[in-house]
Write a structure and sequence with these properties.
303 residues, alpha/beta, TIM Barrel, 8-stranded parallel beta sheet, 13 helices, binds NADP nicotinamide-adenine-dinucleotide phosphate
Length: 303
C-alpha cells in the first residue's frame, strides 16, 4: 500500500554524505528538458513531493530550475539542488566564475551539491575551485560525475576532501558493482543517472521486472527505481509527465524482498549501457565540442 503525499515527503529516505549533510535518495533529473518547459516540470515535481533536483550547466536550463522553484512556493531550505561544472568551464578561477553564474541563473545563494560533470579538461583546477566554493559556503557538498575506475581513484587520491558523491550511469542492467566497491573505500555515495535506462533497453517489458511488478501491483519503473533506492543508491529519474513523476516518486516507499533483489541483481550486464567507454575518441570529441555546439547563449552571440 503506497502512502499519501504528505506522508511521502515526511518519510522520504535521506542519505548522509561524508561531511554530514543529508540528501534525498530519490530525486528529479532535468536532462533534455528545455529552459522554457523546465520551470513547469520542476514546479510539478516539487508539488508531487520531490525535494532533490538534478541539473547541470550543460543542460542549459538552470534558469528554468530557478523559476520552477520560485513558482512552486516550496521554501529553498527544503530543496536539494545538484548542479555540474561543464568541461568548457574547467580550471582554477574559471570553474569558480561558472559556479557564480550558476548561482545567478538558479537565483539562489548556494548549491547543495556541485559535481565535475566529465573527466576532461583541467579537472584538478576545477576540484580546487569546488573545495574553495565549499569553504565559502557557495556549495554544501562536492563530487564527481562519470569519473570511473582509475579516474575516480586518481582524483580522490590527490585531494584531502574526498568526493562526497559520484554520479554514474546505473540501473538494473548496469549495476556498477566494481565502481561501488571503490566508492566504499572513500565513503563516496553513488548517484544513478539513467536509473530507468533512459526509457530504452526494454526495461518496461523485461520479463523479471514485469513479473515482480505484477506480483507486487507496482509499475516496472517503480521496481527498477526501488532496486536502486533499497541499496542506498540515489536515483534521479526524469519525466516530463506529472503522472509518471508521481509514479516514480512512490518507489521510495517500496521494500523489495531479498529474493526479488536477488532476481533483479542477476540482470546486471544483460544490456549494453548508454556509455560503455568515455575514452572512445568520437565521444571524447563530441563532449569537448558540446558547449560550442549546443550552448544557446553562444549561438545567440554568433547570430
Ligand atoms: N551525469 C551525467 O552525465 C548524466 C547523464 C544523463 C543523465 N543525467 C541525469 O540523470 C537524470 C535521469 O537520466 P535520464 O534522463 O538520462 O534517463 P532516465 O531517467 O533513466 O529515463 C528517462 C526516460 O524515461 C521515461 N520515463 C520516465 N518515467 C517513466 C515511467 N514511469 N514510465 C515510462 N517511461 C518513463 C522518460 O520519458 P518522459 O519524459 O516522456 O516521461 C524519459 O524518456 C537526467 O535527467 C539527468 O539529471 C546525468
Amino acid at each position: 500500500m503506497l502512502l499519501n503525499l504528505s506522508e511521502h515527503i515526511k518519510s522520504m529516505n535521506n542519505i548522509k554524505l561524508i561531511n554530514g549533510i543529508s540528501m534525498p535518495t530519490l530525486g528529479y533529473g532535468v536532462f533534455q528538458i528545455d529552459n522554457d518547459s523546465c520551470a513547469r516540470c520542476v514546479s510539478d515535481a516539487l508539488a508531487c513531493g520531490y525535494r532533490l533536483i538534478d541539473t547541470a550547466q550543460a543542460y542549459y536550463n538552470e534558469e528554468g530550475v530557478g523559476k520552477g522553484i520560485k513558482q512552486s512556493g516550496v521554501p529553498r531550505s527544503e530543496i536539494f539542488i545538484t548542479d555540474k561544472v561543464w568541461i568548457s568551464n574547467a580550471g582554477d578561477g574559471h570553474a569558480m566564475q561558472s559556479i557564480e553564474r550558476s548561482l545567478k541563473k538558479l537565483d539562489t545563494d548556494y548549491i547543495d551539491l556541485m559535481l565535475i560533470h566529465q573527466a576532461f579538461g583541467d579537472c584538478y583546477g576545477t576540484y580546487r575551485d569546488l573545495e574553495k566554493a565549499l569553504q565559502q559556503g557557495k556549495v554544501r557538498a562536492i563530487g564527481l560525475s562519470n569519473f570511473l575506475g582509475g579516474r575516480f581513484i586518481d582524483l580522490a587520491e590527490h585531494f584531502e576532501q574526498k568526493p562526497m558523491v559520484l554520479q554514474a550511469e546505473t540501473n538494473v542492467f548496469h549495476q556498477q558493482r566494481a565502481v561501488r566497491s571503490i566508492l566504499d573505500e572513500y565513503g563516496t555515495k553513488l548517484m544513478a543517472w539513467a536509473p530507468l535506462a533512459q526509457g530504452l533497453k526494454d526495461l518496461y517489458s523485461n520479463e523479471v521486472i514485469c513479473d515482480i511488478a505484477n506480483t507486487r501491483h507496482l509499475s516496472p519503473a517503480q521496481v527498477a527505481l526501488a532496486f536502486l533506492v533499497c541499496q542506498g543508491i540515489i536515483a534521479i529519474p526524469k519525466s516530463s509527465h506529472r503522472e509518471r513523476m508521481e509514479e516514480n516518486l512512490q518507489a521510495v516507499e517500496v521494500n523489495l524482498s531479498a529474493a526479488e533483489m536477488d532476481r533483479l541483481s542477476k540482470l546486471d550486464g544483460s544490456k549494453a549501457p548508454a556509455v560503455s567507454d568515455f575514452n572512445e575518441p568520437n565521444l571524447t570529441r563530441f563532449l569537448l565540442n558540446y558547449d560550442a555546439k549546443f550552448n544557446p547563449e553562444r549561438q545567440q552571440k554568433a547570430d
